[in-house]
Structure prediction request, 795 residues.
Amino acid sequence: MTRTPRTRTAARPGARNGVREDPASAYDMTQTEEAVERRTLACIVDNEPGVLGRVVGLFSARGYNIESLTVAEIDRNARQSRITIVTSGTNHVLEQIEQQLLRLVPVAKVIDVTQSGGIERELALVKVAGTGEKRVEALRIAEIFRARVIDTTNESFIFEVTGASAKIDQFIELMRPLGLVEVSRTGVLSIQRGKEKAG
Amino acid sequence: MDGNSAMDAKTPADATEIMTGAEIVLRALADQGVDTIFGYPGGAVLPIYDAIYAQQRVRHILVRHEQGAGHMAEGYARSTGKCGVALATSGPGATNMVTPIADALMDSIPMVVITGQVPTHLIGSDAFQEADTVGITRACTKHNYLVRDVNDLARIIHEAFYIATHGRPGPVVIDIPKNVQFAKGRYIGPDAIEHRTYRPRTEPVSGRIEEAVALMARAERPVIYSGGGVINSGPKAAKALRALAKATGFPVTSTLMGLGAFPASDKQWLGMVGMHGSFESNNAMHDCDVMLCIGARFDDRVTGRLDAFSPRSRKIHIDVDPSSINKNVRVDVPIVADAGKAMEALTETWAKRSPRRTPDLAPWWEQIDQWRARKSFAYPASKAVIKPQHAIERLYALTRDRDVYITTEVGQHQMWAAQFFHFDEPNRWMTSGGLGTMGYGLPAAVGVQAAHPKSLVIDIAGDASVQMTMQEMSTAVQHELPVKIFILNNSWMGMVRQWQQLLHGERYSHSYSDSLPDFVKLAEAYGGHGVMCEDPAQLDAAIMEMIDTPRPVLFDCRVEKAENCFPMIPSGAAHNEMILGKITGDEIGDAGKMLV
Prediction:
C-alpha cells in the first residue's frame, strides 16, 4: 500500500481546538472576510396560498437574515403580490439569495432595490406620553419630521411618520427622552424610479 | 371513462367534460402518459382508489410502506427519463413519503406525489389522519399544491407535471382533500398548460459559448466534470457529451450521479471524482487549467477542501439552475442552459474555432497515465474470504452482456458498486447521491423493474441498509417483479464502522449489525428465493443461480468484515491529498472530524 506525498498549501493555518478558520468545505463557507452589506430586494410573486411561507422558509432553511419584510397584493386581476425584504450578507450570499428566490416557482421577478437606486419608504406609528414642556417639544419635533398627529389625549400623542428607515429611527430616538411609549412600523416598501413597471 | 378518452382529450368538447375529482386524477395521469403508479390506500384517498378500480390505463403497484412507493417512483423515473408518480393517503401516508420527496429534490428526480387530505371543512381541526402536508413538504419539494376547488384540479395536475419535468427536475406534491375527490368538476386536457411564471431558460447565450470555447481552445490540461444533469437532460445530452469529448479529446470524469453518461469503457474516461473517486480523476481535477463542469453542482463530496479545490483552473459551469452557479465555487464562465443544448452548441462552436490549432494534450495524458498507473482501486485479493470489491467485479463480469440496471443503498457497498461496476449507458445506475438515503435501493429496483419487466435489475445492497425497506420484497413478489437484491453482508454498518475506525479511535458505537436475520429464510418467507455464499470459489455459480432465478432473489454475500473503502479523500482535505491504502488514526485533523 502506498500513500501519496501530501502537499500542504502554505495558506492553510493549523486548526485550533478543532475549529478551522479558513473555509475548508461548503459547511463553513460563511467564515469569510468579505464585508456584510444591507440590501433591499423586491419580489414580484404569484399571490397564491403559501407563497409567503415559501419565501420565509427559504430564508430560515438557508440561514439568511431578514431585517424586515412587507407583503401585500399589488394587482388583484393578475393575482400578484410584492414582497419587499431587507436582508444582509456578503456579496456572495446576497447573490445566492436572489438566485434561490428565483428558484421558487411562484416568484416571477426579483429586483435589487438597493443597487438599482430604487426608492424605499417606511411608515411608523409612534405613541408618546407626557405633559408640559416635553409634550410641546414632542409636537415641535413632529412638525420638523412632517409627522402627523392621528390621535391625542391630554397626556399622549400618536404620530404617523413616513420616510426612509433612517429618518424614522432618528425620530424615535428624539422621542425617547420625551416619553416614548411604543412604536409600530410597517417595514420597508420599495418602488423603482422612472416610468417602467416592475412585474 | 371509456376507451376513447385518449382521443377525447384532443377535442374542444373536452373543455366541458364533467367528472368527479377522483376521475379527473386518473384521467389526467393517463393523458400525461403515466402507465404505472406506486401507492398505498387509506381513508383520504378512497375515492381515488375507486377510480383506479374502474379503469385500465394506469397500473397501480401496491407497496408495503409509502416510503417504498416514493423510491419506486424515483427508480421508475431515473431509469425511464419519465416522471414518476406515487400516491399516499393523508397524515401518516404523507409523512412516510417525506424521505423519498427530499431524496428526489436533492437528486433532481422528476416526481409527482399525490396525497389525500381530510375534507376542506375539517382542515385545521386536528381531524383523524390530518397533517399539514403542504407545510411539511414545502421545504423538500420543488413546488406543492393544496387543491381547494375541483375545477382547479386538472390544471394543477398538468401544471405539476410541467414543473416536475421542466428546468431542473424535482418532486411536486398535490394534496387533494377528500371532498374535492368526490366533487364533480370540469376536466381540461394537458394541451397548452404552462405555468404562469415558471419558464426555465434552456437555450445557452451564444456569447458565453464562445467565451467557453476560447478558454477550452487554449487549455493544456483540460478536464470535463459531468454530473447527474447530463442524465436528466436525456439521451441526447449523453450523446452530446460523447461528441464533445471526441471532438476535443478532453479527459472526462463524472460525479456519482452522472455515471453512465460517458462510457466507462472509453479511453478518455477517468473514473468517478470525489471522496471515493479515482486517483487519476481527483488529481486531474486538482491540476487542470480548464475545468468544464456540466450538470454537476460542486457538492462537498466532490470538492473536498474548498479553498484547495482545483486552485489553478479557469472554470466553465453549465447548469439549468442559475442558483447552482457560484454557490460553492466561483466560476469564470457561467452558462445557464440545458446540458444537452449547451454541449451541442459547444461542439458546433468548437468545430468553427480559430485558430484551429490547440495545445498538444499529449503531456497531460502522459501525466494522467502516471496517475492511472497507481491503480487506486487495487485491493489485496483473498482465496479465503470474499472481498466485497471482488464480489462486485464478478457481478459486473457475469452480467456484462445483459440488459442490466443497478440500484444501490447507501454506504460502503454503494461506493464499491460505483468503483467496480461500470456503465456505458445513461439511466442504468440509480443511487441516492444527495440525501444518502439508506433503504433507497430495494424499492428503487422494484420501480425500475416495473418499468423494464424483461431486464435484469439488481440492487447492490448492504446488510444494514436493506433492512430499512425490506418489506418491499413482498411488493416484488406480489407483482412478479423479479428484482435481485445482492447484499454485501459484512455484519456492520460498514461506512459508519470505517469512520469510527478512522476518526473515532476505533470505538465502534452501535455500528455492529447484531441479530441479523437469516436472509435465505427471509427470502423464502416472502415467497422469493434466497442464496447464500461465503466461499470465493462458489461465488460465480451463486451469482449465476441468482441471475437465472425468474423470481425475486435475496443474495446473502458474506464478505470480508473489516474491509475499508479506498481510495479516500479525508474530510477537509484536498483532491491531491488522497489516501490510497492503509490509513492510520492521525490522517484526519480535528477540523476534518467536525465535518460530515
Q: What stands out?
A: The first helix of chain A runs from residue 51 to 61. Chain A is about 25% helix and 35% strand. The beta strands of chain A are 37-46, 68-75, 80-89, 107-112, 119-129, 148-153, 156-163, 180-185, 189-191.
